[in-house]
Write a structure and sequence with these properties.
Chain lengths: ~550, ~1200
């Protein structure tokens, strides 16, 4: 019962409180308090926010720059090591501790590879700068990953052929780790940036009652009511009477209040857009704001139109390639427009127009750099031809038809792997890399076509050319390396790892070794089990009438 | 009264139908109203699965369909349960009807069940069983009273039931209602009907079934009224089917049956019995009839097919050639065209196959039967002159034809049918145009396959196969057949390949009337085995009817034909995990016609060297294993690879070109393609045999020549492989040691290879071996046991390889010393005495001719080797010559690793000794030259030579010859030593060897003056024995025992010469007697030897002036030398040791060799060691 009683008391008290609160305060002071407090809060908050958010943004920017400097170095250094200066590591440019912006000034501009690296740096700068647009937004978090997801990184920096390369896996992990760190740092910044204004408000504006303090008041009231039970019964009666009276005035008062609240809202809006005039215009009537819905629709329609125009003007794949940017820009515009107070559609249209202009330029600059797959294929066909490589190949070793077939095959492989779009810079890089790759392949072919395996020579030291094999067979005993300049000349060595053949050689040295090897008695251990070549030069053979014949015997010893 | 069971207590059900009892809601009328989706769907049966219910179910099925047929004749076909049960019932009828035609003898069993079995069950203690039996008995009794049967006078219709099992699973039983009922849904059998439909798999109405079966059902029901009455619903069903059957014959038959002509028709059928148990209906009242199987007719249908092959073979059942997709619409398959989309595959053997989509068991072949899935490509071109391949550019393959092909076709068929084509992209297209009966015998079925250079596992289309490389090398020796089949008795095949492959061969001979080939057994021996650490594997196949029996005797079986027409090859490529088939068709040509001819072949098996000569067409030549010369040279050993265009002739035909490793192994383990005067490998050859490292020669019959042992013709030319080829020399001796079976085996192996090669040479020239004189030479000093061994070996070999009978008349053994006499061009006049000394490696044979006939022969175990032998007990190379010249020759060989290593090889070889090493040194003229100039060793040469002549003259004197010889012929390799002693080839030079011989003769005969004697030596002394033997054979044969009749044995004294045939005298010449204390013969021999040495050092030295005329070291002190060489005590001890050895080791009892040389041998050995030591100085100086 006590509990019920107490609750009743509380309920009555609450009603009283509600009823008395308006009554106890002068009418004007309500709106004044609301307005003035709100203005002050907002004013203070915005000042603090503004001051703090500027520093937060700057700090974020700094973090991103540092981040890009770091991962930029890692990527570019990897490329320089693996591709540009692979054969001459001593010439490699060291970019450590240098800002990404300064990379290109340090890089040479000689070979195609070096030029490509400069393009890579530019791409990195572009990806970095894209992030700056989101510095003040939550979308910044999403954008941090963009570099890892980009085709620039996946196709150009890494590429399919290196995707399982440990160094590149490590690079990937390092970039991921840096992104995580960056995210944490930005998050921390954001956290600090959001808390500070509130803390300041609480600490610095003691005179202002904030709604949360009502809880304490309520507790005190309850305690008071408990102590003054009888008194409150009387007061309850009075209160009821007063409330009845109050209700009579309520409607009248409400109408007035609504009018003032409306004015206050307008005033608040004008304070936000024109803070400098807030003291003068607080009570001035403010123009009505366009609804978010309208703003959003308008913006979306405008961007859609822009999108269509872009599609019309440019290759669909290139335009679609910018989808992330496009959506980001659209979101940005909608978000920023919402923070604006557009009183008329004209005002909104004007705003959108400016944004569209700016963003279209931004998008077009990227789209114009985009190369569609069709165009890329045309360029590949035009820039990668067999004739480019034929002069460097000895067609006596690899027939021209094989070279053509190889180039064609590799080119087709490249085409098959082409992304739907790329940039001219990246494409140039791809083509240049690819040319190097073909050269490597052809060089390898050349090497392969120069090395053959044969069984032992006959008793006359002759080998039929028909018996050559590109791979080791069970009875392979000799390796012939043809001279690239004269394919009728070759050096030869014994295949010492062909153990059983070598054992047979030792056993029947007169038939198998002596026809092709120089074996002095002092180098023959009759109980020996192993053949060793003396020196590294090997023996030599010449090809005549389809037979390889020994010219210089291979010096060996049996140990 | 019988009653039916009811679920309602105490209710009796009238015995007039299973559903006829009062108040049954499902009375006849109600049942009629029940609609069934006939022909639409199958509704599972849900009745109680008792046997009786099942029987009713089948009759009900017929009932329903019959009733529905009234309204709709198409109802006979459908998918309902009724259709299924009807179809299954008919299936059982048809299976049993076609029992023989479908050849179901091994698949169907029956079991007769009788009601009596319940009697025992009723007494069972198991209540359940008892109840069951009692219940069943009640049922049966009740059912037996069914009016349907009772009214016909059929009693106890349900007392018996025949259960039918297919593949050991019960499938059906007999039913008095429908003939048969089945177990229902779970019937699963794999028997197909004549139209290739699996029984029980689909529903099939009667009218859709084979015409014969429709007729049968009509006849059965027309002739068996009890069946017709009992199976009345089935009869109705049959009648319904008759109305819509498409068969005119069936309708015609029905008409006849209605006219009552059934009795005759029943004769077309017979009562079916399975495992002697009759099948019958209604408890044995009506027997089940089945069709009479006409196997002849069935086979004739198949034989008439247009798809039957045309072959040169006369086969009783030539198979059909079928290929999926090849239907040949205008051709008759059996009684129709070959079905579209017919699967032509079978895992059964060809003769047991059923023709596709038929039940006729008749052979048929398809592509996979005759064409290998993959193609074997060789690393060389095939010798197409000797191994057949179709014309065209592809020469490096083995024909991908399986052994099965030759079951049905001949090799000549194959040559007409097969084509090999190289396609533009390199693939190889093999086509077999199989001629068939179609198109009036002009038709063909093409079996073709394209073999491409791809991995076998990538082949997924039967039109394609892979080309798989093989390292196989192959050859056959000898590569000919002869007209006298008895001599087509032995072939050897060589097979080499690299590891990673396993290769099998099947030699076959064509059979003309049966669908098979005659397999010719080949014993395979892998000599360099796969688990040995060598890169290649060698296998030798022995195809022969000459074998050793358990006693180790050589025998032949002339009834066993081992000739072959072809060889099928199976190559298992372990890397590719693929097995490939192919065939080799050797072109041995027509059998060579044989004539008797005047031919002889002579085998001189020497201790160190051996020589074989043969005479054909009045021409004596050295043995070779080829015919012709130059480019027309035809080796007897023909390899699969084509002849090389490079190198010396002897190398052009071997395996070196295919793979140098193979060349090495061929020379070491088998036979060079060219052995003869046009080859590096020519006679005389070293008497050495190579034995596989895995063979224990000590075991009886362990040696199989050219399988695990061979004569290494390359010995001395090529280095042999130390770990795999064990060379054994000195094979001629030690054969009498019973504990040394290996010595006997090796000697026999060595002779066998030569005898076989010589025989093959005669055959290749077209001469009958049995008509040829076969001469083998023996040293007279050979002990009896040794002689017995040689005789045994030669007799066995001759009978098996030459005469093919017990007739040994053409086998002649001749004294080694006798034969050379006939090798001289000149003749010796009447009254002249001619003496010949055949100085071999181990023995010196002396023979004296008077009037061209041998009047005295003897032999000493003292010859060329006696100078170089080792008597050291542990070191076979312990000899002064070796000690001195080993280093010198090493220096001489300089940087030639091969020469140095050959020398090392001989020294390190287990079976070789000092004489082999010195013999190797003699290959180099520098050695001979150095020996001629070696003043110290010259002393030993002189002692050696003089001893021979001295004792020879003593024997001549003892024989009381009345005239001294004017000519002494010197033959044998040992004769070359005389040249060294003489320092000049001309032995008759002034103050040369002939002078020494004259001085020796003067001394022995105590002449006052020198008697002029001329020494005659042939240019090739080793050959003179064999060639002389051949040239003199006719004279020798006039009295072939003249040499042995005049064989004398010298004890070694000046006076004891005993005629070998003088048994009385020989009785006193027992070895054991010589060592008795009172026997003075050893002392006398010692005195004789001492006399020789005293004469040698005191007189001859100076008379012949050894220092001046022979270059003997002038610093030698003859007195000191004489003291050393005349130590009587040592001489006697040496002789005693020899005698003990003869008794204990050689197990000889009677003296067969003079003791004179035994001590001299010991002196030569001992002094050779002194010469190379400082001790020599003790024999020099004043």
């Amino acid at each position: 019962m006590k509990y019920t009683y107490s609750l009743h008391i509380a309920f009555i008290s609450f009603l009283m409180l509600l009823g008395c609160s308006d009554r106890l305060e002068p009418e004007g002071s309500i709106e004044n308090t609301i307005d003035s407090n709100k203005e002050e809060i907002e004013q203070l908050g915005e000042e603090i926010f503004e001051r703090d958010s500027i520093s937060v943004v700057e700090r974020k920017k700094e973090l991103i720059i540092k981040f890009y400097d770091k991962i930029g170095y890692k990527m570019i250094d990897r490329v320089l090591t693996d591709r540009v200066y692979k054969s001459s590591p001593e010439n490699k440019i060291v970019l450590k501790s240098i800002s990404l912006n300064e990379f290109n000034s340090k890089l040479k501009n000689g070979t195609e590879s070096e030029k490509n690296v400069k393009l890579y740096v530019k791409s990195l700068v572009k990806y970095r700068d894209m992030l700056f647009l989101d510095l003040a937004k939550d979308s910044i978090y999403k954008g941090l990953d963009n570099i890892l997801k980009s085709r620039f990184y996946i196709d150009t920096i890494v590429g399919k052929e290196r995707i399982s390369n440990e160094l590149y896996i490590k690079l990937n992990d390092e970039i991921k780790a840096n992104i995580d760190t960056l995210k944490n740092d930005i998050e921390e910044l954001d956290l600090k940036g959001n808390q500070k204004p509130l803390e300041n408000l609480v600490k610095e504006e003691n005179g202002i009652t904030i709604p949360d303090e009502g809880k304490n008041k309520f507790k005190k009231l309850i305690e008071f009511i408990k102590k003054q039970g009888l008194l409150f019964l009387i007061l309850l009666l009075v209160s009821i009477i007063l409330n009845i009276l109050q209700y009579i005035f309520y409607k009248k008062k409400r109408r007035q209040l609504n009018s003032k609240l409306s004015k206050a809202t307008e005033k608040l809006a004008s304070i936000k857009t024109k803070p400098e005039n807030k003291s003068d215009d607080v009570f001035k009537p403010k123009p009505s704001k366009l609804s978010d819905h309208i703003v959003k629709n308008k913006i979306e329609n405008a961007y859609e139109t822009m999108h269509k125009t872009l599609l019309h003007n440019y290759h669909r794949n290139c335009v679609e390639d910018q989808e992330v940017t496009y959506n980001t820009l659209l979101s940005d515009t909608i978000a920023s427009a919402r923070s604006e107070r557009f009183t008329s559609e004209q005002e909104l249209t004007s705003y959108i127009s400016k944004q569209i202009q700016k963003h279209r330029a931004l998008l077009e600059s990227d789209i114009q750099e985009c190369v569609s797959q069709d165009v890329a294929i045309q360029q590949i066909h035009a820039r990668i031809t067999t004739e480019d490589f034929l002069p460097t190949i000895n067609t006596a070793i690899i027939p021209e038809s094989e070279v053509r077939a190889k180039v064609q095959l590799l080119r087709q492989n490249l085409i098959n792997e082409l992304p739907l779009t790329t940039t001219q810079e990246v494409l140039s890089g791809i083509i240049n890399d690819f040319k190097q790759s073909i050269e490597t392949h052809l060089h390898k072919m050349l090497q392969e076509n120069l090395v053959f395996y044969f069984p032992f020579a006959d008793v006359r030291g002759a080998l039929s050319d028909e018996k050559k094999s590109k791979t080791k067979a069970r009875d392979s005993a000799l390796q012939l390396s043809l001279s690239p300049d004269n394919v009728t000349q070759a050096t030869f060595h014994l295949l010492l790892d062909q153990e059983q053949m070598m054992q047979a050689g030792i056993m029947s040295y007169d038939s198998l070794l002596l026809p092709i090897c120089e074996l002095k008695p002092e180098n023959f251990n009759s109980s020996g089990t192993r053949i060793e070549e003396i020196g590294t030069q090997g023996g030599t053979m010449t090809l005549e009438d389809g037979k390889w014949r020994v010219k210089d015997k291979l010096p060996i010893k049996i140990v | 009264m019988s009653h039916k069971l009811s679920l309602i207590p105490e209710q009796n059900i009238a015995n007039n139908g299973w559903n006829a009892y009062p108040n049954n809601p499902y009375d006849e009328n109600k049942i009629q109203e029940i609609k069934d989706n006939i022909s639409k769907i199958e509704v599972p049966v849900t009745s109680i699965p008792s046997p009786f219910a099942q029987m009713h179910l089948f009759e009900t099925s017929f009932t329903f369909i019959n009733k529905a047929f009234v309204d709709d004749s198409s109802v006979l076909r459908g998918k309902t349960s009724y259709h299924k049960y009807i179809s299954q019932c008919l299936d059982v009828f048809e299976i049993l009807f076609s029992y023989e035609t479908l050849k179901l003898q091994d698949r169907i069993e029956i079991q007769l069940w009788k009601k009596e079995e319940l009697t025992a069950l009723i007494k069972d203690k198991n209540v359940g069983l008892k109840t069951f039996a009692e219940t069943l008995k009640i049922f049966i009794t009740n059912y037996n009273n069914d009016r349907r049967f009772v009214n016909q006078g059929i009693s106890n219709a349900f007392d018996e039931c025949i259960l039918i099992y297919i593949d050991n699973t019960i499938v059906a039983g007999t039913s008095p209602y429908t003939g048969f009922f089945t177990t229902g849904d779970s019937v699963l059998v794999t028997i197909s009907d004549k139209q290739n439909r699996k029984f029980f798999s689909t529903n099939k109405a009667l009218y859709e079934r084979e015409e014969d079966f429709q007729k049968y059902m009509n006849v059965l029901f027309a002739t068996e009224p009890e069946v017709a009455q009992s199976f009345k619903e089935l009869q109705t069903y049959i009648k319904n089917n008759n109305t819509i059957t498409a068969s005119d014959d069936v309708r015609k038959l029905v008409g006849e049956l209605e006219r009552g002509n059934a009795t005759e028709l029943v004769r077309d059928y017979r009562i079916l019995e399975i495992n002697n148990e009759e099948i019958s209906f209604l408890s044995g009242r009506v027997p089940f009839l089945c069709e009479k199987f006409n196997s002849i007719n069935e086979q004739q249908i198949a034989k008439n097919s247009d798809f039957v092959i045309k072959t040169s073979k006369r086969l009783e059942r030539p198979p059909l050639a079928l290929l999926e997709g090849v239907t040949k619409k205008r051709w008759t398959y059996l009684d129709n065209t070959f079905p579209e989309n017919c699967i032509v595959r079978s895992t059964a053997s060809i003769e047991d196959r059923k023709l596709p989509e038929s039940v006729i068991e008749y052979p048929w072949i398809t592509r996979d039967d005759v064409l290998s899935k993959h193609l074997i490509q060789l690393e060389y071109n095939v010798n197409i002159d000797k191994y057949w391949l179709p014309q065209g550019p592809v020469k490096n393959i083995i024909l991908p034809v399986t052994p099965t092909y030759f079951n049905y076709f001949t090799i000549e068929d194959l040559k007409k049918q097969i084509t090999v084509e190289k396609l533009n992209l390199g693939a190889i297209l093999i086509t077999l145009d199989i001629p068939v009966q179609g198109d009036n015998g002009r038709g063909t079925i093409k079996f073709e396959r394209t073999y491409d250079f791809v991995a076998p596992e990538t082949i997924d289309n039967p039109d394609y196969g892979a080309v798989v490389k093989s390292s196989l090398a192959f050859g056959i020796y000898p590569f000919f057949k002869v007209s006298d089949p008895v001599f087509n008795d032995r072939y050897k095949a060589l097979s080499f390949h690299l590891k990673g492959e396993e290769i099998d061969y099947q030699f076959f001979r064509e059979e003309n009337t049966i669908p098979t080939i005659a397999k010719v057994e080949a014993h395979s021996h892998s000599r360099t085995r796969k688990d040995e650490g060598y890169p290649s594997i060698s296998t030798y196949l022995d195809i022969t009817n000459i074998t050793y029996n358990e006693q180790g005797e050589l025998t032949f079986n002339s009834n066993r034909d081992i000739t072959f027409d072809g060889i099928t090859v199976t190559v298992k490529n372990l890397d590719e995990n693929t097995t490939l088939d192919g065939c080799l068709l050797p072109l041995m040509g027509e059998p060579r016609q044989l004539i008797d001819g005047d031919t002889s072949i002579a085998f001189d098996i020497g201790t160190s060297n051996s020589f074989v000569a043969l005479k054909t067409a009045n021409q004596v030549e050295n043995l070779s294993n080829y015919e012709g010369k130059g480019s027309s040279m035809q080796p007897h050993f023909v390899l699969l690879n084509e002849r090389s265009s490079e190198g010396e002739d002897y190398k052009k035909n071997d395996l070196n070109e295919v793979n140098p490793i193979y060349g090495v192994v061929q020379d070491a383990e088998f036979l060079p393609s060219m052995v003869g005067d046009n080859s590096l490998f020519k006679f005389p050859i070293r008497s050495v045999i190579n034995v596989d490292n895995d063979t224990n020669a000590e075991e009886v019959n362990s040696i199989n020549i050219l399988s695990n042992a061979n004569i290494p013709f390359a010995f001395g030319h090529n280095v042999l492989r130390r770990e795999y080829d064990f060379s054994h020399s000195n094979i001629k001796w030690g054969v009498t040691d019973s504990k040394n079976q290996g010595a006997y085996n090796k000697l026999r192996g060595f002779i066998e290879q030569l005898a076989w090669m010589g025989r093959n040479k005669l055959l290749s020239e077209g001469y009958k071996p049995k008509a040829a004189n076969v001469i083998w030479f023996k040293p007279l000093s050979m002990g009896n046991k040794q002689m017995t061994v040689f005789n045994t070996i030669w007799n066995e070999l001759y009978m098996n390889y030459y005469s093919k009978s017990d007739n040994l008349s053409k086998l002649v053994s001749v004294t080694e010393s006798w034969a050379p006499y006939y090798s001289y061009d000149r003749t010796f006049g009447t009254g002249e005495v001619y003496m010949n000394l055949d100085i071999g490696g181990g023995t010196t044979d002396l023979i004296v001719f008077r009037n061209n006939k041998p009047t005295l022969t003897t032999s000493y175990r003292f010859a060329g080797n006696s100078l170089f032998e080792s008597y050291g007990s542990h070191n076979p190379f312990d000899n002064g010559f070796v000690s001195k010249y080993e280093d010198q020759m090493l220096k001489h060989f300089g940087s030639s690793v091969k020469k140095i290593e050959t020398m090392k090889y001989i020294k390190e070889s287990k079976g070789l000794q000092s004489t082999d090493l010195v013999s190797y040194f003699f290959n180099y003229s520098s050695f001979t030259k150095n020996l001629k100039l070696d003043s110290e060793f010259k002393l030993l040469f002189l002692i050696h030579n003089c001893a021979i002549f001295y004792h020879s003259m003593q024997i001549l004197k003892m024989s009381e010859v009345d005239k001294l010889p004017s000519y002494i012929g010197v033959s044998g390799n040992g004769a070359k030593l005389l040249e060294i002693t003489n320092g000049d080839k001309n032995l008759n030079r002034s103050q040369g060897m002939s002078k020494v011989v004259q001085l020796l003769t003067k001394e022995v005969f105590d002449l006052e003056e020198l008697h002029k004697i001329e020494l005659q030596i042939l240019s090739n002394p080793k050959e003179s024995t064999a060639i002389g033997g051949i040239q003199g054979i006719e004279k020798i044969k006039l009295d072939p025992t003249l040499d042995t009749e005049n064989y004398y044995i010298s004890i070694g004294t000046k006076e004891d010469l005993i005629k070998d045939t003088d048994a009385e005298s020989k009785r006193n010449l027992k070895y054991a007697d010589f060592i008795k204390e009172d026997n003075t013969k050893i002392d006398e021999v010692s005195e004789n030897i001492v006399s020789f040495f005293e004469y040698f050092f005191d007189s001859l030295w100076y008379q012949a002036d050894f220092v001046k005329n022979f270059g003997v070291d002038k610093s030698y002190n003859t007195d000191k030398l004489k003291v050393f060489f005349t130590n009587a005590s040592k001489i006697k001890n040496t002789i005693r040791e020899v005698i003990n050895h003869k008794i204990e080791v050689e197990q000889e009892s009677i003296i067969n060799d003079t003791f004179f040389f035994e001590a001299i041998k010991a002196y030569l050995y001992a002094f050779s060691k002194i010469i190379v030591s400082d001790a020599i100085n003790e024999f020099k100086g004043a």
